[in-house]
Amino acid sequence: MDAQQRTFTNMKVFYFLAYFSFGGLFPLLSVYFQNEIELSGSQIGMITSIGPIVMLLTQPVWGLLSDYTKRPRLLLTIAVIGTGSVGFTYLLAEEYVILVAIAAGLAMFQSAIIPLSDSMAMNYVYKNGGDYGNIRMWGAVGFALAVWFMGMLSDWLGQGIIFYGFALVLFISAYFSLGMPKESVTAKVDIRGGMKELVKVPGFLLFLIVTFLVFGPIMANNFYFGLLIQFSGGSLAGVGFAFLLAAGSEVPFMRWAGQWIRKRGILVILFVAALASGIRWIFYSTGPTPEFIYMTTIIQGFSIGLFVPAALQYVTELAPKEVKATAVAIYSAVGNGLGAWFFSISAGLIMEWSSILSVYLFYGIFTLSGAALTLWMIRSKKAESSNGLAIAEPKLKEH
């Protein structure tokens, strides 16, 4: 195996292990808080929502450190060891305030892992050829297998096992982080100046609202899906099995997304994905049995597998060249940051007032609102295309 093959293999292993650690902890964390610590819904909501905000604030700091030190591999190694170490301390804490502090500390280190590794991987692929998607795909595989595997182990050995697994796998990934490519490129982002340009782009602000309404519930679902399955009568192994089906089904749809986008158009694909996601949440609010939940998890593959690549392509090709990096940063902040925070903390409050079924009704209403707004964008584009005032849809490039 030559040096280039070793680097590609190393990157795939790192992504597999990093996402395996995430998949083995976060989908089962809310279940642990409810069953073992007996936290209230609002307390669970606060703990699960603190991460997106901390990550939003600390990611730029890691980027500046990478630019200043020119040692992204070292920073990545520090980040994975720090994430594993802080995450393990969940097992030693029961006080609510301490759990919130742990969640914030974990997010501070975790916020560096994906941006740094993505930057190194994409820069390497750009210089040496290859397919970033084939590298990143191993992360999806690791996440899906982890929830299934750790769910079974939790049934056999107790829920505390998820923290041992999380720390151990991240410590192993630290070895492979040292073998990541040496160089990374951090895109320069000017939020204030870039936003002045982006507000002039037809459809950009509307799409940020769509992202908030559709992607926010998708991100928050990672924390509350396990509680839904347990509420319906499923086991921890069942939680893992459901996530295996859901996350695993994303891979083929992500592969087909490009072809479908070129054939139908980005906005149409975004509308269909948002509609499917909203219908899924409404169905879950009716209190289905675990078997019906398992059967419908493929909708996650359809909705996320299409929405994520379509949304990213829409943003990058809609934005002017000089503010593309800013557009992607704002899009990510709205969906992964503000959206995940709002729908996580709201879910906790709703659980305390009502039940997990009401959480998914809430998700469904907001997501279908996002789908309706996307449909309005499509109709506006068609109605006004003749006079050039329509909401823009970027011309797609053949990839």
Give descriptors for this structure.
single chain, 399 residues, Growth Hormone, Chain: A, 2 domains, 15 helices, 82% helix, disordered C terminus, uridine transmembrane transporter activity, MFS transporter, MFS_dom, cell membrane
Please describe the topology of this protein:
Blueprint: H1 3-37, H2 41-69, H3 72-88, H4 96-128, H5 132-157, H6 161-177, H7 191-198, H8 204-231, H9 236-248, H10 250-264, H11 266-284, H12 290-296, H13 298-318, H14 324-353, H15 356-384
Keywords: Cell membrane, Membrane, Transmembrane, Transmembrane helix, Transport
Membrane topology: Multi-pass membrane protein
Subcellular location: Cell membrane
In words, what does this structure look like?
This protein is mostly helical. It has 2 domains: about 1-185, Growth Hormone, Chain: A (Up-down Bundle); about 185-399, Growth Hormone, Chain: A (Up-down Bundle). The protein is about 80% helix and about 0% strand. The protein has 15 helices and no strands. It is globular and about 60 Å long. The two termini are about 30 Å apart.
